Amino acid sequence: MGTLPERKDIPPWVKAPEDLKDPEVLQVQTQLLEAMFGPAGSRIPYIEQVSKVMLELKVLESSDLMEIVVYGSYLYKLRARWMLQSMAEWHRQRQERGMLKLEDAMKALELGPWMK
């Protein structure tokens, strides 16, 4: 991963070229991205600014995962990676709880044998 990112608009808090070397990479389920980053990634600029990093999303072929590549100074990259992993886990658990509630509601709606 020693190549520089393709992105042209490098934020001012990311120092090129030293902050663009050795990025942190994490993989997230594609279905969680909208919950994490908003529709069409609308929250990405805010997350980048607050975290003092630059994010790049990459599609992994033949997988339901996306790579989030985090560029920045060493400590900011680690902090942003931890935050993004925590967000992904929270959204995954929230989605799982929602599915369990849906299953319970559907079971509650099932007709008893006397109603058939």
Helix run count: 3
Describe the largest sheet: 3 strands, antiparallel
Query: What letter string, H or E per element, gives the SSE order?
Result: EHHEEH
Write out the strand line-up for the largest beta sheet, numbering strands in chain order: 1-3-2
Count of beta strands: 3
Low-confidence stretches: 1-5
Terminal CA distance: 62 Å
**Named CATH topology:** Ribosomal Protein S8, Chain: A, domain 1
| Share of residues in helices | 40-55%
CATH structural class: Alpha Beta
Question: Which helices and strands appear, and what pairs or packs with what?
Answer:
Layout: E1 24-29, H1 33-37, H2 44-51, E2 54-59, E3 65-71, H3 74-109
Antiparallel strand pairs: 1-3, 2-3
